[in-house]
Amino acid sequence: MEKNDRPKICICLTGKTIAEDLRILERYRSMVDYAELRADCLDPNERFYIRSFPEKAGLPCILTIRRLQDGGKFEDGEGVRLVLFAKALSFPKAEASANYAFVDLECDFKAPVVEEACHTFGTRIVRSLIYRDSLPENLDTAYDRLTLEEDEIPKLTVNPQNSADFIRFLEWSLQRPKRDQILIARGPYGIVSRILAWRLGSMWTYASPLQYGMEMAAPGHFDPQDLVNIYNFDLVDPDTVIYTLIGQHSIAQSLSPYLHNTAFRKMGKNALLVPTPVDSFSDGLKILEMLGGKGAAITVPFKEDVLPFLAIHSTDVKRIGACNTLVWRDSAWAGYNTDADGFERSLLEFLGKQDISGCRATLIGAGGAAKSIALALFRKGAHALVLNRTYSAGRDLARKYDFSYTHLDDRAIDQISEYSNLIVQATSLGMKGESDPINFYEFKGSEAVFDLIYHPSKTVLLKRAEAAGCRTINGYKMLCYQAAGQYKLWMNEPPPDIYAQLEQPESS
Ligand code: NDP
């Protein structure tokens, strides 16, 4: 990608009729550059009309007829496929835009008639090789199978099974000489290759019209609107400074990219936050460094794993024993923690007062987040009771601040009642709709209940508390305020108001 040239998006149209595909395309026209007609998804009698698609679509089109074995829906034999390609690519119109700009042909599909027609009439061949469920041992050998003709566009699709696989693919992609090509890692581990397709040297990234109910054409696709609105496809360029969000699979649902990238856009920062789902913190750090990133947000479950990698530990990191923010400072990684401040600000706003000294609070959990909450409660002069599934971890956290502690089961009922001005839920239980960690406790209705989870926006615990008449808040505001703290550390300037103003999206 050249400077002043934004990354390109190709929308995959998998409708049953041409009319449906065109209707969907119309909704995304302003944000996409190419349209891929997945003719294998069309009803059989619609296939007669595929020749007319580029003229009707009015933007450069790619014709793909994907076989079942490659993840497509085309069930007929290769002879029928050949006829369809020939039909779609023949009788070219004088106006080049009325013809297919590209055709996707698998590397084992040898069809000299189709290839000759393409060369004669100016349709470029995307030569693809798909590893649906794996990553080849030797990526160079796989790639060499694709690069037979100079004017063809090699397209290699792999499916990393873990973050180590993805690192191997990323390392290889970043070292490839520049040429027209498409390199894709599918599935949850590969999302960086979709968001940063341009960094990996791909001509475009594929996207599916998910917001209009069309299926995801391949695992890991984003909706084009998300690529533009969340990942700033209209702004990024080769100089964009990368920040990453390091966490496990669940970070695909994180609102951090939405918050930070909206702030970067608003403040005119040439920066982008990209989620990197990984199996270990060290894998996340490798990806960050490979991308030349300048910082990272760290989330579940790596906030403690990061500590040995830090050259500088902020005071809060030392006190809490967990770090949620990395900043590249003086050729080394400095670690900070903005969770305690983020929690404190959202809590005081929620309670509507600045002074909570003497407040009696129950804190559920003793993980990275709970450690920040404990510090914030201690700083504000609250008295707390700590409950945790692993008793010893709860005990150790409580002792640090001279708090009380007990078991996370019905033995705690009476003590919770004594510490019931405020109840803070800081475990990961509830993110998947599970029952709440204190289902043995009956709310009186006078408790203020703060659940750190924001996805789902109302956990079972919050619903139960609300039904009993309690005031409740989820973790969205805390997320916003801890993110504002991260912005300040990364940009070395006060965060914009946008962090306080952005509402939680309804779909989250
Ligand atoms: P950690 O992995 O560090 O800690 C997880 C905590 O949850 C531990 O206390 C663990 O107990 C407990 N836990 C996990 N599974 C269960 C279970 N089945 N039953 C009971 N307890 C369980 O995660 P974090 O502390 O970083 O995050 C915890 C939650 O807070 C997450 O949901 C996260 O999304 C949210 N969070 C929200 C933030 C916000 O800004 N809104 C910021 C940070 C976190 P044990 O010690 O026994 O393993």
3D structure, described in words:
The chain is an alpha/beta fold and 508 residues long. 32% of the residues lie in helices and 19% in strands. The chain has 18 helices and 20 strands. It has helices at 18-28, 53-57, 78-89, 112-121, 139-144, 163-175, 191-195, 224-229, 256-266, 281-290, 315-320, 339-351, 368-379, 391-400, 413-418, 460-467, 476-491, 498-501; strands spanning 9-13, 34-38, 61-64, 102-106, 124-130, 153-158, 182-185, 205-207, 241-247, 271-277, 295-298, 312-313, 325-329, 332-336, 360-364, 383-388, 404-407, 422-425, 448-451, 471-473. The strands form three sheets. It has an eight-stranded parallel sheet. It has a six-stranded mixed sheet with strand order 10-9-11-13-14-12, with helices on both faces. Helix 6 runs parallel beside helix 10 (281-290). The longest helix is centred in the last third of the chain and has 16 residues, at 476-491. The mean pLDDT is 95. The protein binds NADPH dihydro-nicotinamide-adenine-dinucleotide phosphate. NADPH dihydro-nicotinamide-adenine-dinucleotide phosphate binds next to helix 12, helix 13 and helix 17.
Draw up the topology in text.
Blueprint: E1 9-13, H1 18-28, E2 34-38, H2 53-57, E3 61-64, H3 78-89, E4 102-106, H4 112-121, E5 124-130, H5 139-144, E6 153-158, H6 163-175, E7 182-185, H7 191-195, E8 205-207, H8 224-229, E9 241-247, H9 256-266, E10 271-277, H10 281-290, E11 295-298, E12 312-313, H11 315-320, E13 325-329, E14 332-336, H12 339-351, E15 360-364, H13 368-379, E16 383-388, H14 391-400, E17 404-407, H15 413-418, E18 422-425, E19 448-451, H16 460-467, E20 471-473, H17 476-491, H18 498-501
Parallel strand pairs: 1-2, 1-8, 2-3, 3-4, 4-5, 5-6, 6-7, 9-10, 9-11, 12-14, 15-16, 15-18, 16-17, 18-19, 19-20
Antiparallel strand pairs: 11-13, 13-14
Helix pairs in contact: 3-4, 6-10, 9-17, 12-13, 12-17
The chain binds NADPH dihydro-nicotinamide-adenine-dinucleotide phosphate.
The site of NADPH dihydro-nicotinamide-adenine-dinucleotide phosphate has 28 residues, from helix 12, helix 13 and helix 17.
